[in-house]
Structure of PHP domain-containing protein:
Amino acid sequence: MLADYHVHTQYSDDSVYPMEEVVLDAIDLGLDALCFTDHVDYGVKRDWDDPRGVPVPSRRPPAEPSGRQK
């Protein structure tokens, strides 16, 4: 089995590699498995240089045990 267990995509602050290209390149290389290890920045990297800081999204209330929100 040939695999790459540490791949960053454009969703990490240290990569610009589109996820779709990673998958296509892995197929071309004959990889059997991939593991995306992004830092879960989801575009926040563009705000790091903003002198006002990085916006923090509001937190949703936890779901009820039934799965319904209050």
